[in-house]
Specification:
It is a single chain. The protein is α/β, with parallel strands linked by helices and 317 residues long. The protein has a domain of 165 residues: 3-Layer(aba) Sandwich (Rossmann fold), CATH 3.40.50. The strands form 3 sheets. A 7-stranded parallel β-sheet has the order 3-2-1-4-5-6-10, with helices on both faces. The protein has a two-stranded parallel ribbon with strand order 7-9. A two-stranded parallel sheet has the order 8-11. The C terminus is likely disordered.
Length: 317
C-alpha cells in the first residue's frame, strides 16, 4: 500500500490543480490548499483544509505549511499584464523559503518543456527560472516539464477547440507548424500524483509528453477530423505574435494577453529529449488522438452553435 502524505497544494482553484486535488483526495492523502480566494474551493474532501494565503506574501503561508511533508507549486502569473516573470520568481522564492523553514521533504513543480540552449520565449524561460528558484531551497525537487495539455478546460485545448469550431477558413501563421509533444490530462495527473512517492536522491528535471510529436496545426486537423468538420487552413507566415493574439482573442475565450504569451512560446519546439520519465515512472502515455477523444467526450458542444457563430462572423467581417 502506498504511503499517505500530508501535502500542501497551491493552484487548486486552477484547471490542473483542481483535478490534482481530487486525485490526491481519492488516494487518501491529507491536503492543505493555499488559495487567495478560499471561497472558490467548495466541495473538498474530509481530509482537505483550505487556507487563505498568497505566495507573494510569506507571512500568509505559515499556517498552511505546518506538518507538511510534500508541497506542490502549481502557480503561474500568465494573466498578469506586466512583470509576470518577476512575480513568478518572487512567488517561487517565497514558497521555497517557507518550505525549507517548515521542514518539507519534497517539492513538486509543473514546468514547461523547451531546450535550454534555445532562445526561449519569456513564458518558457520563466517556467525554467521558477524551477531553478525552487531547487535553490535545498529540498529535493521534482520539476516535471510538459508541453501542450489536452483536456477539457485546458488553455491549449480551448484554443484548438475555439479556432477549429469557429473558423471554416483558418489563417495559420508559422507558429502552428512548430513541433510539440502534447500530453493528455489523465497522463499528466498520473505523473503529478506518482511524483509523491517516486524514488529520487535529490533534484530531478523530468521531461514528460504523450506518444506523439505534433504541432498545433496537426492538433487542429485531428480535432476537426474527430468532430467531422470541414476546414481549410491558409498559411500566412508573416502574422506576428501580436497580431495572432488579437486574431485569436476575437474567436476564442482565451485572454489576449495570455494568448500572446502562449504564442510567443509556441515558436520554440517543446518535445521530450530525455528518457528519464521512462526510468522513473511506469506510465505508458496515450496518443494525441486518444487524449483528444477523451477531451472531446468531456466537452459539451452545441449541435450548431459554433457553426452559426462562424457564419455570422464571416457575414459581418
Amino acid at each position: 500500500m502506498r504511503e499517505k502524505h500530508k501535502i500542501l497544494l497551491t493552484g487548486a482553484t486552477g484547471y490542473i490543480g483542481g483535478k490534482l486535488l481530487k486525485r490526491l483526495e481519492l488516494e487518501g492523502h491529507s491536503v492543505n490548499c493555499l488559495a487567495r480566494n478560499p471561497d472558490a474551493l467548495k466541495d473538498t474532501g474530509v481530509n482537505t483544509r483550505v487556507f487563505e494565503g498568497d505566495v507573494l506574501e510569506r507571512s500568509t503561508m505559515f499556517e498552511a505549511f505546518q506538518d507538511v511533508d510534500t508541497a506542490y507549486f502549481m502557480i503561474h502569473f500568465l494573466n498578469e499584464k506586466f512583470d509576470f516573470e518577476a512575480m513568478e520568481i518572487e512567488a517561487a522564492e517565497n514558497f521555497a523559503c517557507m518550505a525549507r523553514g517548515a521542514g518539507v521533504e519534497r517539492i513538486i513543480y509543473l514546468g514547461a518543456l523547451g531546450n535550454e540552449d534555445d532562445e526561449l520565449s519569456p513564458h518558457l524561460r520563466s517556467r525554467h527560472d521558477v524551477g531553478h528558484a525552487l531547487r535553490q531551497s535545498g529540498i529535493p525537487t521534482i520539476e516535471l516539464r510538459a508541453s501542450i495539455v489536452l483536456g477539457e478546460g485546458s488553455l491549449s485545448f480551448d484554443l484548438i477547440r475555439d479556432l477549429s469550431e469557429h473558423l471554416p477558413f483558418m489563417v495559420t501563421p508559422r507558429w502552428v507548424s512548430t513541433k510539440a509533444q502534447p500530453i493528455g490530462v489523465r497522463d499528466l495527473l498520473d505523473y503529478l500524483a506518482r511524483s509523491v512517492d517516486v524514488c529520487i536522491e535529490h533534484d530531478e528535471i523530468i521531461e514528460i509528453g504523450g506518444a506523439d510529436r505534433m504541432s498545433y496545426g496537426d492538433l487542429m486537423r485531428e480535432y476537426v477530423r474527430q468532430r467531422g468538420l470541414k476546414r481549410v487552413m491558409i498559411p500566412v507566415p508573416a502574422l506576428t505574435p501580436w497580431l495572432s493574439s488579437h486574431w485569436i482573442s476575437f474567436f476564442s475565450s482565451v485572454d489576449v494577453h495570455v494568448a500572446r504569451k502562449l504564442i510567443e512560446g509556441i515558436k520554440n519546439p517543446t518535445v521530450v529529449e530525455s528518457d528519464r520519465a521512462r526510468q522513473l515512472f511506469n506510465i505508458q502515455p496515450s496518443s494525441a488522438s486518444k487524449a483528444m477523444s477523451e477531451a472531446l467526450a468531456n466537452t459539451p458542444l452545441a449541435a450548431d452553435g459554433f457553426e452559426t457563430l462562424a457564419h455570422a462572423t464571416m457575414a459581418h467581417g
